[in-house]
Amino acid sequence: MEQMKEQILTHQLQPGEKLPTEYDLCRSFGVSRAVVRQAMTVLSMMGLIEIKQGSGSFVAEPLGRLVSTSVDLNLSVEKDSPRDSIYRLIEMKEILESRASALAAERATPALLKKMERCLETMETLLDDPIAFLKMDYEFHQAVADATNNHFIESFERAILDLMWKVSPALVAPKKELSISLEYHRAIHRAIQSKDPREAAHAALVHLKRIEKREFSLWQERFSELPGE
Asked: pLDDT (tens digit, 9 = 90+) per residue, 141-170?
């Protein structure tokens, strides 16, 4: 993943260029298909590549890469603790996703509404697989961002999701928590489908407040386990 990331950022791979097949990547890097698929998933979440069903994987256009890389670098030199960085990311998500959900309620196309619905249906089957559930969770939020028909929101959402993947300890949750999360996502979808911007924004905020509460709880547990605490 790091090698491909470097090739993209140094323009050895050009925007729009089709990437080799899974088989060819396995041979080139000497790894299994599972490793290649995991790397491609992370690169997609980072906004560096686009995976198109039936067509293959392509190097993303510069805007998505620029935003993702910029936020990534800013976090790398962040002076705050990881905990503070997470809370700041959640604050940004509250601003971005509440507004994105409201705009999606006004602008979502039937195709994107259907995509959100498919994400929810798949998430319901993945309650015993937190990693796969999380991936589909991201697909849902990206579909909401795409429904705004605003390329800047789409790119920033992709970047924020990637950073949350890297720094948040609360992402991989138990089955009970995933079931609750699924209901929050359904509420967001219902509001968007009903073309109710205010309710969509509210549903997104309630969902994020739940994430913030879980983050706080996990960090409290970590501190209580420190020697002398």
From this structure: 999 999 999 988 988 888 777 777 666 545
Torsion angle defined by CA atoms of residues 201, 115, 212 and 133, in that order, rounded to the nearest 10 degrees? 160
Which residue range forms the structural domain that includes residue 172? 63-224
Distance CA 82, CA 45 (A): 20
Q: Is 178 a domain residue?
A: yes
- Rounded CA-CA distance 218/205 in Å is 20
Indicate if 69 and 31 belong to the same structural domain: no
Tell me, yes or no, whether 160 and 50 share the same domain: no
pLDDT digits (tens, 9 = 90+) for 216-228: 666 555 544 444 4
* Residue that terminates a domain, selected from 60, 80, 103: 60
Q: What is the pTM of this model?
A: 0.65
Give which of 34, 36, 41, 40 is closest to 24, Cα–Cα.
Answer: 36
Give the SS3 label for residue 61. coil
